[in-house]
Design brief:
alpha/beta; Rossmann fold; 2 domains; 6-stranded parallel β-sheet; 15 helices; about 15% strand
């Protein structure tokens, strides 16, 4: 059994080698059709496009992505050709929650955003959006933030008859455009259907905003039309910008990079806790194909011994994770986008 795996997936290589002697580790963007021609399992992240051009004529029968999103998988083609696929829903949701929580704290500290007077609109309330909601309301580091109101928008869940989280009700995107002081996106990237999310934040979206909100995108780059975004900034339709996911990654728009308050290289979900979850879930998918129990103990590294947690909740939140540090690195070396992702330092969600 041959497994080809993205070499930036942490903690996974020794586990794969315990399953089979034939393991090839390569950078995700460098995996080619020749690499997978005689492979049986392919393990990827978002940087490997899994479609006919990569997999046609190969022996691959399972593609596992160690990510929540799977828009880099041509699932229709895979299914039509008998190739199973699996993702890791919710694996790094709490990590994205931490990212949003800490970004809001820095918006309050450095940009004067009054969180207690602000309405937060969460667009997309699946695993990640729900974790964001918890991150700003529950008693974890830095929370609760004391936001005035929180609006939740998730048309697919609403149309399916799902109940909103306790204490909340579903609202329309139009209401968020009218009432939210901060809008954060947490939808998948989809291009078809009534609820397609590709360029959902376009010219029309921005011109319907009423409160000059902070815009946060830690979902997928294509959700926001960046040309329209920059135009909206020129017209004073939006306030500050926090952006982690970009169109055309890793070749990002440097004007948007310069103008954003916080700009990071698609690492919102990169806590060690989230990475360990993703690896654990990926191995579980693979073990099912080997008909063996999932008995690998995947644990993230502990914080350094000299880490001294603050007794102040907000200080502790920023001790654990300050997105401004990632933003400084990104703004000083945007050409290092992929390197910054591949060499991301230890980040834990709790002390």
């Amino acid at each position: 059994m041959k497994i080809v795996c993205d070499d930036k997936i942490p903690y996974i290589e020794p586990c794969l080698r315990a399953l089979t002697d034939d393991v090839v580790m390569k950078p995700g963007e460098a995996i080619t059709a020749d690499d997978v021609r005689d492979a049986h399992i392919l393990v990827v992240r978002t940087r490997t496009r899994c479609d006919a051009s990569l997999l046609s004529g190969s022996s691959v029968f399972l593609v596992a992505t160690a990510t929540i999103g799977y828009d880099h998988l041509d699932t229709r083609w895979l299914e039509a050709h008998g190739i199973a696929w699996a993702n890791c829903p919710g694996c790094n949701a709490s990590s994205v929650g931490q990212y949003v929580n800490s970004s809001l704290l820095q918006l309050q500290r450095q940009r004067g955003v009054d969180l207690k007077a602000s309405t937060l609109g969460i667009v997309g309330v699946g695993h990640v959006g729900s974790a964001v909601l918890r991150s700003v309301t529950e008693g974890k580091p830095g929370a609760p933030l004391g936001l005035r109101r929180i609006l939740l928008c998730d048309p697919p869940r609403q149309q399916a008859g799902d109940a909103a989280p306790e204490g909340y009700e579903w609202c329309s995107l139009e209401r968020i455009q009218e009432e939210a002081d901060i809008i954060t996106f947490h939808t998948p990237l989809t291009r078809e259907g009534d609820n397609a999310t590709y360029h959902m934040a376009d010219d029309t979206f921005f011109h319907r905003l009423r409160r000059k909100p902070v815009i946060i995108n830690a979902a997928r780059g294509g959700i926001i039309d960046e040309r329209a975004f920059l135009q909206a900034m020129d017209e004073g339709l939006v306030g500050d910008v926090v952006i982690d996911t970009w169109e055309n990654e890793p070749h990002i728009d440097e004007e948007l990079l310069r103008r954003a308050f916080i700009a990071t290289p698609h690492i919102a979900g990169y806590s060690a806790d989230g990475k360990a979850n993703a690896t654990r879930m990926t191995l579980r998918h693979i073990c099912r194909f080997f008909f063996r129990p999932m008995d690998f103990d995947i644990q993230p590294p502990t914080l350094p011994a000299d880490f001294h947690p603050s007794e102040d909740a907000e200080e502790l939140a920023l001790q654990l994770y300050d997105p401004c540090t990632d933003s400084e690195h990104m703004k000083s070396s945007p050409e290092q986008f992929e390197w910054l992702r591949g060499h991301y330092p230890l980040r834990r969600e709790e002390a």
